[in-house]
Specification:
Length: 315
């Protein structure tokens, strides 16, 4: 059985399409856990209505605590041998879980992965390829290097055994950005193998630009904590090779500094923290020339970097 976990918060405009796509799966042995995370729109009513028409649906209604807490609550009661996650404003193709299940079983992997489609990328690949990854350095880096794999939860099927075996059944509820990447990277590194299909079965909907690169908020500082956990946990075991994660850490750190300065939202403690992070890694540990240069200028003269950044990106 596959458990599909859907955290829901104020998704009334998208939820029915999402649920219809799950119920239309050609793989029928499903447990569908809907976690209504304190929605104040019609999401609760929609969940209740669908639970009446399909016995595979299980409901959790709770006060709003965030997506990580919602996923944790679902994992605690999940009974499937495999677990998938679907965001409530997206939808999936009918054969997604059938094909991910066949892939994970045929390759004896712990995780299977498919591609995804957006409005800018609307078709499934003409030629579908499959590959399996066993090398740890490749497993950790493909999450950043290959955007179609990514550090997302929603385009993957996880063995429940590996989740339970490694004691990672719970998401860190204090991480609000890159929490998916943190969780997924741990499971990837603990897996014996990961199998990937280039076929795009997941339909991802974007709602404006919520990137860490474009706005500042204190909650986005937790992305740095997530990345630092990944780097600290795995850099010794794979003898370095985490330059992409260090690049991402420094990119987010500099972006938060620049946007925080522009929006005048930085307090003294946060400013000192972000400035200190500029020296966390040797410039030789960074892969991107552009990020190396930005980091160097910030170290020498933060105000100069802000003027340059504001002229090119801050408008």
């Amino acid at each position: 059985m596959i458990t599909i976990i859907v955290p829901i918060f104020n998704s009334e405009n998208f939820l029915e399409k999402c649920l219809e796509s799950i119920l239309a799966q050609t793989y029928k042995d499903l447990e569908i856990i809907l976690v209504n995370d304190g929605s104040n729109d019609r999401s609760k009513d929609i969940c209740n209505a669908y639970a009446k028409i399909d016995s595979r649906i299980k409901l959790i209604h709770k006060n709003n605590e965030g997506v990580s807490a919602a996923r944790n609550d679902a994992l605690k009661v999940a009974k499937g041998e495999y677990v998938g996650f679907v965001d409530s404003d997206d939808w999936i193709d009918p054969k997604m879980y059938e094909n991910l299940y066949k892939l994970i079983r045929s390759t004896d992997s712990d995780i299977s992965v498919c591609g995804y489609k957006t409005r800018l990328n609307s078709s499934i690949n003409g030629k579908i390829d499959y590959f399996t990854i066993e090398d740890n350095k490749e497993k950790i880096n493909i999450l950043i290097k290959n955007n179609q794999v990514g550090g997302y939860l929603w385009n993957k099927l996880f063995s429940m055994d590996i989740i339970k075996k490694n004691g990672m059944s719970l998401f860190d509820e204090n991480i609000y950005f890159c929490e998916d990447l943190l969780y997924t990277s741990q499971l990837f590194m603990e897996s014996k193998s990961v199998s990937v299909t280039t076929a795009s079965y997941y339909n991802y909907i974007t709602h404006g630009n919520n990137s860490t690169s474009y706005t500042y908020s204190k909650s986005k500082l937790t992305a740095l904590l997530a990345l630092q956990q990944i780097i600290d946990k795995f850099q010794d075991s794979i003898n370095g090779g985490l330059e992409l994660y260090k690049d991402l850490f420094m990119h987010i750190n500099i972006s938060l500094l620049m946007n925080g300065m522009k929006q005048k939202k930085l307090d003294k403690k946060t400013t000192l923290y972000l400035k200190k992070n500029l020296f966390r890694y040797n410039l030789l540990d960074l892969k991107s020339y552009k990020i190396k240069l930005s980091c160097l200028i910030c170290r020498i003269n933060l105000r100069l970097h802000y003027i340059i950044w504001n002229n090119f990106y801050g408008k």
